[in-house]
Each structure stands twice: as C-alpha cells, then as structure tokens.
Design goal:
The structure holds two protein chains of two kinds. By secondary structure, chain A is mainly α. Chain A has eleven helices and two strands. The model of chain A has no long low-confidence stretch (mean pLDDT 85). In chain B, helix 4 crosses helix 5. Helices cover 37% and strands 26% of the residues of chain B. Chain B has one domain: P-loop containing nucleotide triphosphate hydrolases (Rossmann fold, 3-Layer(aba) Sandwich), CATH 3.40.50.300.
C-alpha cells in the first residue's frame, strides 16, 4: 500500500469504511498519532523545558519560587475586615482566601499560557513544518504538556502550603487528575483551534493578548460563582473555565465531591473542544503549510 | 500491488500540478477560508504543471533546472510536505528529505541535542538515535564541537552534522536538495561515496546545480522548466541540452512574474 497517495489535492484512504467506523477512526486518531510520535514529543518537550530557563543560574528554582511568592503575597494582601469566602473555616480567614484565589489562578494561568502562546505556535516552528515531514498537530500537545509541568509545580506548592497552614488535606485531593485530565484535553483542543487561526493571521495573537486579562474577571477567580446575582450565576458557566475552577476548589479546598452537573458540563466542554479543535486543525493542515 | 511491475515503482506522479494561492490583498485569505466554497479569491500561481514521473526502485534521478523552476516544490510535494493541487501522486516506502540542511537546528542547543531532535523529526526512535550517535558524530567529523551550541558552528559544520543525521535514517527513498554545496571537497566526496553505497539498496531523487554530481550519481535526468518537464532521459544527453539552453537563453528578469 502506498505511504502517500494523493489525487487532486486529497489524501486517498484506500479501505472504505462505514460511518460508524469513520467516527471511531476520528475519535482515536489524535491518540494514535500521539502514541506514534511519542519519541518526537518527548524530544521537543525536553528542549522546550530546558529552553525556558536557559541562561539563568537558578533555573528550575524559578518555577517553584514564582508560585510561592504569589501565594505569600495573596496571604498578606487580604485583610480580615473583608467578608471573605472560607472565613469561618479551620484554615483561618487569610489563608483560606489566599488559597481560594490561588486555586483559581492556577487554573486561569494554565489557560492563559496556552491562550497567549497557541496563536504563534506554528510560526515558532516554521522551519520544521516547511522543511521536514513534521507532525504539526503534535505542537499543540507538546506546548500543553509543557504548561502542564508548570501547573503541576504550582499545585504541589499549593498543597504543601495548605498542609503546612492547616495540618490536614481533604481526601478528595486524590481526585485532582479527574479534573486536570479533561482540562488538559480542553486546552489541547483550544490550542489546535488557535494555532490554526494564528497561522493565517497575527490578529489571533493580538486578540488573545487583549481578551485573556479580561477573562481573569469573567472567571470566578476572585469571587465564588455563587456570589453572583441571579441570572449570571448560571450564565457564568458559559465560560468553560468556571466549571474547572469550581471543581478544583471543591476537591482541594472544600474537601467535597463536585456538583455532578458542573463536572459533567466540564467533561462535555472538554470533549467537544478537543475534537472540534482537532477537526478544525486537520481540515486546514494542508493549507497552513502553504500560508505560514 | 500484486503485479511485480507496479510494486517496483516507488514514486509515480500523473498529471501532477501545484498552484500556490496568490492573494491580491493581504486579507483575502480570510474570505477564502470563510467563503471558499462559493468563489475563489486568489489567483492560482502554477509552480508545477503536468508532471508525469515514474521512479523505479533503485533508480537515481537527477533533477535539473534554473532557480525557481519548481524543482524544490516538486521534491516537497513528493515528500508529502505540501499537497499537490491536482493530479495523482503515489509514494511507496519510507522517505527521508534532505532539504535545506540544518535550517531546523536550534542555535542555542548543542550539536548533540540537535541530533536528538533532528533524529526524532526524521522519525527515529530515541533508542535508535542513541545507538547510532557514535556513528553520526564520526561521519560528521566535527569533534569536540558536538557539545558546543550550534550558533558557534560554521555553515560547513552545520551541513556536515545535518547530512550525517540524514545518512543514518535508513530510508528507502532519499530526497536531496542541493545539500552538498556548502561542504568542503573532502566532505563532499564522503557524502557522494555514501550516496553511492545508498543507491545499491535505495532510490535517490537529487537536485543539484553541479552537472558533475548529476552525471556521476544519476541514472536518469529530468530537466524542469517553468514547472513542466522539458526533457528527461539519459543524463549526459539532458545535461548537454540543458547547458546549450542556458547559453542561449538570457537570464530573463520577467521569469518570476505570474502570467495568465
């Protein structure tokens, strides 16, 4: 069977398949490709990780210092005079609200890093895309994995801080992967979409730089979703980040199982974004090579 | 693929054409993406037209032509980096492109790290790259520079490193685009010797402006002009005609403007 088989600008898939088979193939395709290119993903990921702190003496210490510094500042910034969430919990008001914000910011920063970077992602790798046989769809996966590494550091810092401050952690923290895996899928899908758009126009990058900071307030980072007045406390879920922030707080801070509607909604946005992003990228992949 | 004749053909193109989309205004591509199903907003610029090539296993093909005639695009299309606009293309076997050598190197990283990435990009497993590393660095012959950042390399050293990565891919079809122009004579000879030995098992597609290389390496030559095949056949005949044409035809400055 030919390894490349193209007729009139379309790849020919030789064997015929029914609609169910095609759907199954579409569903497994991104994962098959990730598995197939795992060594390439690892090689480029390794390079990207070392690149971030290249030329700095402290290196990876910065990745730990940054979240530590942030959480310390939040703790001292918020006074007890405010009526704050978690004010009556065992954590004490300051620590409670600091953790409340920090957990929101972890989720937000993870999203923001991808939102800022994705539109320029393919431009960073133009040489690879144009001059080698390069699986450009794996770039979104690689950059999301890189951001995941920093997020894992932040979450670890937060958990240690929480443990030191309160001498206890709720058992529900073991459920963290249940929210982070769908979130990572959500971000990979978003990156596919944004980097495909970004290949055509730089506007996508400028747009994200302007919009992303606004999302910090359109997402319940500083306030709980329940504090919003009547219609908005429902519609805020239209911002998919709301669900992830809320579930994250439920399992890490409040030590309770998340609301199942909210969790299912987050799963739904995750699966939809992942596959929509992949479909979109795949559709324009061959055009992107020529315009980038 | 039951008949023996068709399985011997590793690259087959039929009526192959490639057009780049030229947009009059910078933002017309957006209209094209949104309303492309309705009408087209670009002027097609045909870089390749009516290309019919059949390459058999074990052949080595030299591709000749002036700058911008479509040679490199043809190789890119055959490698599958960019899709042809119409016509058929069939490639059988593992293909390794040696195009624009070293342009994918990360200047901040050492030669060693670039070998790891370059190998992965060409489809090698990490264990394979590690196993072949000694051999790669020996072929490149850049000694202790292997652990220096690539930004301190000369052009020739980059070429050496890039070519030796490609030489270790174990491809069935090797596509080489003016790769050897920068290396010194000794290294060029080494590469040519390697290509010679590669030809015993694999198929070679080769672009070069050095007629001597084409004559030495190729069993068949294809002369491309303005995106079409002008002549193909025995290397010495094609080279002679190509040379004659170069002397007669001036270096016309209007060659690159889109006509029609």
């Amino acid at each position: 069977m030919p390894s490349v088989n193209v007729v009139n600008g379309k790849q020919i898939v030789v064997e015929s398949a029914g609609p169910v088979q095609q759907l199954v193939r579409f569903v497994v395709k991104p994962f098959v490709r990730m598995w197939h290119h795992q060594d390439l993903i690892a090689a480029i990921l390794r390079r990207e990780m070392s690149e971030r702190f290249k030329g700095s003496v402290a290196g990876w210490v910065w990745a730990v210092v940054a979240p530590l510094l942030a959480i310390a500042v939040y703790t001292f910034a918020f006074t007890t005079n405010l009526q704050l969430p978690l004010a009556n919990s065992a954590m004490g008001p300051r620590v409670g609200y600091a953790l409340f914000i920090f957990s929101g910011i972890i989720v937000f920063n993870f999203w923001a890093e991808m939102a800022f970077r994705a539109p320029m992602l393919l431009h960073e790798y133009t040489h690879f895309i144009k001059q080698t046989i390069f699986p450009s769809d794996m770039l979104a996966v690689i950059s999301t994995l890189r951001a995941t590494a920093y997020t894992v550091i932040s979450v670890t810092v937060m958990l240690i801080f929480q443990l030191v401050a309160t001498h206890t952690l709720p058992w529900t923290v073991v459920l963290i992967p249940l929210i982070f895996i769908p979130f990572i899928a959500f971000l990979i899908g978003m990156s596919w979409f944004l980097c495909a758009i970004g290949a055509f126009t730089r506007d996508a990058g400028y747009l994200m730089i302007n919009i992303a900071p606004l999302f910090m307030f359109a997402t319940p980072v500083f306030y709980p979703q329940s504090a919003l007045p009547a219609p908005f406390d429902f519609w805020i879920y239209a911002n998919a980040l709301t669900g992830y922030v809320e579930v994250m707080r439920d399992i890490v801070l409040f030590g309770k199982l998340p609301n199942w509607h909210v969790y299912l909604w987050s799963l739904l946005t995750s699966v939809f974004t992942f596959y929509f992003g992949y479909w979109f990228f795949d559709r324009y992949r061959n055009v992107i090579v020529d315009v980038i | 693929m039951s008949s023996s004749t068709s399985s011997d053909i590793v690259v087959r193109t039929k009526n192959l054409g490639k057009a780049y989309q030229l947009y009059a205004r910078r933002n017309d591509w957006l209209k094209q993406v949104l309303f492309g199903w309705w009408k087209s907003f670009f002027k097609p610029f045909w870089v390749l037209r009516d290309i019919d090539i059949e390459v058999k296993r074990g052949e080595s093909i030299g591709i000749l032509g002036r700058n911008g005639c479509g040679k490199s695009t043809l190789l890119q299309v055959i490698c599958g980096m960019t899709l042809p606009t119409h016509g058929e293309l069939r490639v059988t076997g593992r293909i390794a492109p040696v195009l624009a050598l070293g342009s994918t190197f990360d200047l901040e990283l050492s030669g060693r790290e670039n070998v790891m990435i370059g190998g992965a990009v060409l489809g090698l497993k990490r264990s394979e790259v590690l196993r072949k590393f000694e051999s790669i660095s020996e072929f490149a012959g850049i000694g202790d520079y292997m652990d220096q950042p690539v930004k301190h390399y000369s052009m020739g050293m980059r070429t050496r490193l890039a070519f030796s990565i490609c030489a270790h891919v174990e491809a069935e079809i090797l596509v080489v685009d003016e790769a050897l122009a920068v290396g010194d004579a000794a290294f060029q000879r080494k590469c040519l010797d390697w290509i010679d030995s590669f030809r015993k098992t694999g198929t070679l597609l080769f672009v070069s402006h050095s007629m001597a290389e084409v004559r030495r390496l190729c069993t068949r030559a294809i002369w491309i002009e303005e995106g079409r095949i002008r002549e193909q056949g025995d290397p010495s005949t094609v080279i002679r005609n190509y040379h004659r044409a170069l002397l007669v035809e001036k270096d016309d400055i209007h060659r690159f403007s889109a006509s029609e």
